[in-house]
Amino acid sequence: MKKNNINEKAINELLDRSISAIYPSKKELKEKLLSGDKISLYLGIDPTGPSLHLGHAICLNKLAEFQKLGHKIIFLIGSFTAMIGDPTDKNSQRKPLTREQVLENCKDYIKQASGVLDFEGKNPVKILYNSDWHDKLTFSEVISLSSFFTVQQMLERDMFQKRLEEEKAIGLNEFLYPLMQGYDSVVMNVDLELGGNDQIFNMLAGRTLMKKINNKEKFVVAIKLLTDSSGKKMGKSEGNMLTLSDPPKTMFGKVMSWTDEVMVSAFELCTKVPLEEIKEIKEDYEKENTSPRDLKLRLASEVVSLYHGDEVALKEKENFIDQFSNKNLPENIKEVNYKKEIDIITFLTENSFYSSNGEARRMVEQGAIKIHKDSDILKVEDTKFILTKEYNDCVIQAGKRKFLKIKFN
Q1: 331 CB-near residues (< 8 Å, 6+ apart)
Q2: Phi and psi for 246 in degrees, rounded to 5?
Q3: Closest by alpha carbon to 50, among 130, 109, 128?
Q4: C-alpha 21: how far from its chain's center?
């Protein structure tokens, strides 16, 4: 096999940045990479939604580092495993997906991932679908595969223990998920699997099967997760997911809405800012006289630049500062017309600012609602506030990014 040119500095960066754990060890993987041998590795993504998100992107960027060093990358779409449903970190069973739903969800994945990975060129990423082999497994083969694991091993998983305590159901199909993910490694005969550190159990199941069936070691590289201040993974289920299909303005605004506590971690996981510089950013963040807002503007710019380019990132930074820091309003604000006065709660829910009266009341009480009247900004804190004709042509603002102009006929 043709060997790679060895770039020790790039290998050190690859193994130091964003890494949570390496199996069997970082030392052994480093020796393998320094040998110059080309390895094959993969990332598997279950199409449970229509867009790749930032959690995927963190792993994709790590894959891109391997690709630049000349290694063979497989982008595996879980067209079968998505129908089972990964139980990882789930407090209840996933709703099953059909094959049609899965294929519809992933139709733009390659286009989205192509902003990070090279699917053409001299060392193109290989695209595979695991339904190609899982659909062909016989029941006797599944039984044979399952003999390599015990029920006790599966029940050791934290989310299953929690469900047992709460007397919630555990589906037999959920026990089979790590088995099916592990079998992916066997079929592709890869040298390494990469994924988020919430996937360690599943990835190690593949390592077990590789040893048992292929008599081969498989490296596992677990990537750190971007979590909020409470330790929860930032993603779809937590309502703060940044997707690769987001337009730059939305992407910039979402990053600016993150809590200050995630900034240093986000610089490491979500940008290409050198690790040495991130150490300085961490030191600056811990100083009392440093503005977290300025650091977050830098973070948002770096993230948007990765997926939309430097010029677009600069434009969005200027727009954000102009709109929110200088209290200027965005252009082309939508107008809504009323013939008579309306209470603030009805206005907010009727115009889809919030989905329920209860949520609208909470946001009013928290001071999230403002009225731009002439050159003044009025904060609405009374849930019984009435919008009268006195507020004709005023802009109602909810949170940081929602605006409507009210007109009385």
Answers
A1: none
A2: -65, 135
A3: 109
A4: 19
Contacting residues for 393 by C-beta, under 8 A, at least 6 apart? 405, 406, 407
Domains and CATH numbers, the chain: 8-226 (3.40.50.620), 248-325 (1.10.240.10), 335-408 (3.10.290.10)
Helix%, strand%, coil% for the chain, nearest 5 = 50, 15, 35
pLDDT, residue 333, reads: 87
Tokens 């289920």 belong to which residue?
237
Q: How many CA atoms lie within 13 A of 215 on its CB side?
A: 0
pLDDT at res. 19: 96
| H runs (alpha helix) in 80-149 | 81-84, 99-105, 109-113, 131-134, 139-146
Q: Give the chain's mean pLDDT.
A: 90
Residue 400's pLDDT band, with cuts at 50, 70 and 90, is confident
Closest by alpha carbon to 407, among 396, 368, 152?
Answer: 396
User: Nearest 5°: CA angle at 393, between 391 and 398?
Assistant: 75
Written as six digits, the tokens of 121 are 């060129």
Stretch 328-346: mean pLDDT: 88
Q: Which amino acid is at 106?
A: C
| pLDDT tens profile 143-180 | 999 999 998 988 888 888 888 888 888 888 888 999 99
Which residue in the block uniquely carries the two structure tokens 């659909």? Answer: 135
Residue 47 near residue 77, CB atoms below 8 Å: yes
Report in angstroms the alpha-carbon separations of 92 from 88, 96, 155, 157, 318: 10, 12, 15, 14, 43
Beta-carbon-side half-sphere exposure of residue 9 (alpha carbons within 13 Å) = 2
In angstroms, the CA 35 to CA 4 distance is: 8
Q: What are the two backbone dihedrals, phi and then psi, of residue 390, each rounded to the nearest 5 degrees?
A: -60, -25
